[in-house]
Amino acid sequence: MCIRDRDITECYAVPIYVSEEGDIAMDKDFHKKMLEMSRQVNSKETIIGCFVTSSEITKEVEVIYHYFLSRESGFQTQINLPTPLLLMIDPQMPNNSFNLRGYVQQPISVCKDQLTLFQETKVDLLFGSEETNELNIVLNKVK
């Protein structure tokens, strides 16, 4: 699957809390406030998904992603994007590279249960000259 013509021009981090028991909570009020402020600046921008720093899809990633399936998150289905886009940035930066992978949900039904299958989708990174210079500085410091 390839999602075309989606420019990500803005993003913000939302605090996630994991208890000692493994319960996961996302600061939904923070997300709502950031979304409101973002829409004051540009009312045409929409939520197309979420990003996480992880090298694999874990239980925590699924919990975060499922919030973005709800109307409460601000996500609205769009042509060629019926479910939110999940962007995963590998914080380990293997081979000193900016490893970014994209996924969309492909719901499947088995008997009465609904399972989630994530299908990888192509993601192209396009940076302006300022961003390229800054990313090169960061990558050189990691070496």
Can you describe this structure?
With 143 residues, the protein is α+β, with helices and mostly antiparallel strands. The chain has helices spanning 28-41, 59-68, 129-142, and strands spanning 16-18, 24-26, 49-53, 85-89, 100-110, 113-121. It starts with 15 loop residues before the first strand and ends with a helix. The model has no long low-confidence stretch (mean pLDDT 81).
How far apart the termini lie comes to 34 Å
If you compute it from the alpha carbons, what radius of gyration comes out, rounded to the nearest whole angstrom?
16 Å
| Largest sheet data | 4 strands, mixed
Given helix and strand content, the structural type is alpha+beta
Instruction: Give, in order, the helices and strands.
Output: EEHEHEEEH
The unreliable regions are none
Fraction of residues in helix: 25-40%
User: What overall geometry do the principal axes of the alpha carbons give?
Assistant: globular
Characteristics of this structure?
143 residues, four-stranded mixed sheet, 3 helices, 6 strands, 27% helix
Summarize the structure.
With 143 residues, the protein is α+β, with helices and mostly antiparallel strands.
Explain the layout of strands and helices.
Layout lengths: L15 E3 L5 E3 L1 H14 L7 E5 L5 H10 L16 E5 L10 E11 L2 E9 L7 H14 L1
Parallel strand pairs: 3-4
Antiparallel strand pairs: 1-2, 4-5, 5-6
